[in-house]
């Protein structure tokens, strides 16, 4: 019998993060649940226990707090001795025209949706690469593939996240660490209600498209199935959003070409030129 995986999920208190936790709990995984709200994380942990799932560690921290993140990484690695899967899910969206939007909104969204997952990944990376195994999961968006109105900051961050993940995948392709990019469309969560308006205040109302979106548990099931199948880019959408995502999907042949470049010594050659 194999040892259960230790899976760390940020943004685990609701929506896709919570659904992913419950999905993996049914398979006996040990779960590290992170978010800002300890009480809501405790509710998710109770829901995990109700499924008969594995152990949970509640690890609340603010993703923009570098010291808190560093402490969380140490605690996470000490809990079972490893983090087998890191799911970068925490994030915030936007609903405002660029012409009206404060630069602070851009700074805040890019810090939360792009810089924070990069920082957490960079902190976990030596652990995974050093032991030659692991999975890094990045929750982006169809808005990370297509420029969507009223989401200029969100699109900038989510496009950037895919760029980082794709380049990182290539670098890790000879080190045993997999990288998965998730591209959800409208999923029935609080993402629109929590989105920032032009002045940086939470919007407080939802969108019809979100309310009628894919149930979070269904989206999570598709994500987990894609990860288990080794898919590098997993689009979880319906209708027009699915069509847009597929239109901008990164072809597997291109990802294979980049991987082949690394296998043939591209990194070593480039580094040798700069030494």
Secondary structure tally: strands? 9
Number of helices: 10
Shape: globular
Q: How is the CATH topology named? A: Rossmann fold
How widely separated are the two ends?
Answer: 47 Å
Layout: helices, strands, pairs:
Layout: E1 6-9, H1 15-25, E2 30-33, H2 38-50, E3 56-58, H3 66-80, E4 85-88, H4 103-131, E5 134-139, H5 152-172, E6 177-184, E7 187-188, H6 208-211, E8 214-215, H7 216-228, E9 233-236, H8 239-247, H9 252-263, H10 266-273
Helix pairs in contact: 1-2, 1-7, 3-4, 4-5, 5-9
Structure, explained:
This protein is an alpha/beta fold and 275 residues long. The protein has one domain (6-273): Rossmann fold. The chain has ten helices and nine strands. The protein has helices at residues 15-25, 38-50, 66-80, 103-131, 152-172, 208-211, 216-228, 239-247, 252-263, 266-273; strands spanning 6-9, 30-33, 56-58, 85-88, 134-139, 177-184, 187-188, 214-215, 233-236. The strands form two sheets. A seven-stranded parallel sheet has the order 3-2-1-4-5-6-9, sandwiched between helices. A two-stranded parallel sheet has the order 7-8. β5 (134-139), α5 (152-172) and β6 form a beta-alpha-beta unit. α1 packs parallel to α2 (38-50). The longest helix has 29 residues, at 103-131. It is globular. The model has no long low-confidence stretch (mean pLDDT 96).
């Amino acid at each position: 019998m194999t040892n259960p995986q230790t899976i760390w999920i940020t943004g685990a208190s609701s929506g896709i993060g919570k659904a992913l936790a419950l999905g993996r709990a049914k398979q006996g995984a040990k779960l590290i649940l992170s978010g800002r709200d300890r009480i809501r994380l405790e509710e998710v942990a109770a829901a995990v226990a109700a499924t008969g799932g594995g152990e949970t560690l509640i690890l609340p921290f603010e993703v923009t707090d570098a010291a808190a993140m560093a402490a969380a990484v140490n605690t996470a690695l000490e809990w079972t001795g490893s983090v087998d899967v890191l799911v970068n899910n925490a994030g915030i969206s936007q609903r405002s025209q660029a012409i009206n939007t404060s630069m602070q909104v851009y700074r805040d969204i890019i810090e939360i949706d792009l810089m924070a997952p990069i920082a957490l990944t960079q902190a976990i990376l030596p652990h995974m690469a050093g032991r030659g195994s692991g999975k890094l999961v990045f929750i982006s968006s169809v808005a990370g593939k297509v420029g969507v109105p009223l989401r200029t900051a969100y699109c900038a961050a989510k496009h950037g996240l895919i760029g980082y993940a794709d380049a990182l995948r290539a670098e890790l392709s000879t080190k045993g660490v997999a990288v998965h990019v998730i591209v959800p469309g409208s999923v029935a969560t609080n993402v629109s209600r929590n989105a920032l308006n032009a002045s940086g205040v939470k919007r407080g109302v939802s969108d019809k498209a979100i309310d009628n979106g894919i149930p979070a548990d269904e989206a999570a099931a598709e994500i987990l199935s894609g990860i288990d199948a080794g898919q590098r880019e997993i689009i979880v959408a319906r209708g027009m959003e699915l069509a847009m995502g597929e239109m901008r999907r990164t072809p597997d042949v291109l990802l294979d070409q980049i991987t082949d470049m690394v296998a043939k010594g591209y990194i070593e050659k480039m580094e040798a030129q700069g030494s």
